[in-house]
Amino acid sequence: MTHSETPVLSARSVVFSYDRTPALRGASVDIHPREIVAVGGPSGSGKSTLLLCLAGVLQPAAGSVVYRGDDLNATSHSHRSRPRRT
After folding, report:
1. N or C: which end of the chain has fewer CB within 10 A?
2. 60: phi then psi, degrees, rounded to nearest 5
3. What is the value of pTM for the model shown?
4. ∠ at Cα 71 (68, 13), nearest 5°?
């Protein structure tokens, strides 16, 4: 499916580890207006970690998460919580 609209939420090359255990190794996703998205995979594959990064709860070690044009990694914790409040 081709989208002409700008994504509401976009993640690029997101990397996150818990201590020395990698949870995400370069995850990328675009979520467009009115789009419904499901995240699936086996236990331990990083689903919850990806969702927490997209929601601004966790800050990735590398990559970017952009919500409505704002890079959540470059903002304060309170600003990163905006996607959860809206």
Report:
1. N
2. -60, 150
3. 0.85
4. 105
